[in-house]
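User: Show me a protein chain along with its predicted structure.
Assistant: Here is one chain, sequence first, then structure tokens.
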Amino acid sequence: MYQLPSIDEFKTQSPKEQKQVYDHLFEPCDSVTWLIDTFVIHQNFKTYPEFIELVRSRLIQTLNQASFFESRNGKDCNTLIENIISAHPRLGAPKGTALSEHSSEEQKKLEGIQVKLQELNTKYEQTFPGLRYVVFVNGRSRDEIITNMEERIKRNNIEMEKLDALEAMCDIALDRATKLGVKL
């Protein structure tokens, strides 16, 4: 199984090698790579949790300051955020769907409720075009996940949905870091 390099080694790796770390912590996504390479990788951090928290801060800042971000960076913030969120697979993805090693493992506990999740994914994506439902699954029961998904659809607030998804992505990254050899 893949092990994260030490944080000092990670900081000195080539961009291609660093992208491999990003892909393990988050999900493979060119928009995540661009955001991290542009705003985060050159900042001061001493641990993976600090690195992930810097990514979290940048994601939330990008979301909250969309017009400023777009004027300074020439990137469409909504598309960038949607690309990052949509890099996560649908919960309960049908067998045969290409999932990262980490997503595959994280979704194993959802077996048996795929039909309900497919129905909710469809409803979710109709309510929030361009987004995927992202939640930190670890430690939650199947019923909790379904209830959370239903509540978020009912809330029908796309800005809160983006924030919740970005927060969940970073919580997932912290959990993955521990599974990849980082002591928190």
